[in-house]
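Fold it.
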Amino acid sequence: MKYIDRKNDKILQILMRNGRISNSELAEQVGMSPSTCLRRVQDLEQSGIIKGYRAILDRERQGIGFVAYVTVGLSEHSKAAQKAFERSISLSPDVRECHNITGAVEYLLRVEVADITAYKHFHTNVLGNLPQVTAITSYIVMESPKDERA
């Protein structure tokens, strides 16, 4: 697949809002036959544009009431330090996202835990114990009026 035309873009927009929509309903909303729509979705999947489908979870019902974005600065700017940090952070179930970024620090994390006490434990006993970490700044999420992550 070389490009995304308007029909494929509309298919993707609908699937991002509802990945469980039936093919016949999707085809109707896009204005094409079910067989053509299915072929397009399969092409989008095979080309890697659609990487998968996910469930959107209610974090509060899972006992997660505290979310923070955390910037992390490393002591040295080497590939070895980055890999060591990434290996360590990949073991933490509290870290839901880890992004290597540009700017004054190297990483941006999304951390989800039960409460402030659990976050303090993560901050002190996980991040605070990593030898590569020299700077930690926490940004506490108070509300998310728009969140399109799946």
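The first helix runs from residue 6 to 17.
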